[in-house]
């Protein structure tokens, strides 16, 4: 009797585990593409050396910027940024996915941490995930996650270009379904890009970044 009961518990646990891991494996059916500095570059204030705004130590990318910094090119009119731009993987069709773990330290606010670049003008972006006052938001709202400071979160963004649909998952939970905004070329970017009400210091950290494409 006891033995039967133990086997029952064991089988239930295994089934639960299989179900739970299936739930969070958002990358199933996707190919993870090679990602090294051949495929991305660091956009940073044009007048400072990269090492003063970006580091990559023990697998953690750290991007920071100050509200008083210059834009990323002398001719740009945009706010300051330090972003990892996946410009080796510009895409215009198919289903693409960005996966990564992110961390935002306390005391920073008013910036974008991840974007899907490219949209029909006058828009420049199809998706922005921003930090305002301790929350992660889709553009200025709605709020997707509260109380984010000093913690790691898993992010998956799936962009179905042909259907013009995006899905945003935090720690495996679907938090947002959004429409595409047109455009002929897209790329994933992550880091810090100042927005309205930006704090003097802005920082985000990233690890295990993957760019994936759905198998045909
Ligand atoms: C980046 O990855 C590609 C594909 O795996 C490889 O061919 C290339 O040599 C790598 N470049 C560097 C700088 O490691
Ligand atoms: C990808 O697009 C960006 C932004 O339009 C551009 O700066 C970059 O050169 C493109 N990369 C490639 C490899 O075409
Ligand atoms: C920011 O969040 C804190 C705590 O969540 C709250 O007390 C404060 O009023 C908020 N500030 C603004 C400007 O929303
Ligand atoms: C920025 O600050 C102003 C003034 O405090 C406030 O009215 C506005 O809602 C803030 N914007 C965001 C996106 O938090």
TrEMBL record:
The keyword Signal applies. It comes from the Eukaryota. Residues 39-211 form the Alginate lyase domain. Coiled coil: none annotated. This is Concanavalin A-like lectin/glucanases superfamily. SUPFAM superfamilies: Concanavalin A-like lectins/glucanases. Keywords: Lectin, Signal. Pfam families: Alginate_lyase2. GO terms for molecular function: carbohydrate binding. Gene3D superfamilies: 2.60.120.200. The keyword GTP-binding does not apply. Residues 1-20 form the signal peptide. It comes from Corchorus capsularis (Jute).
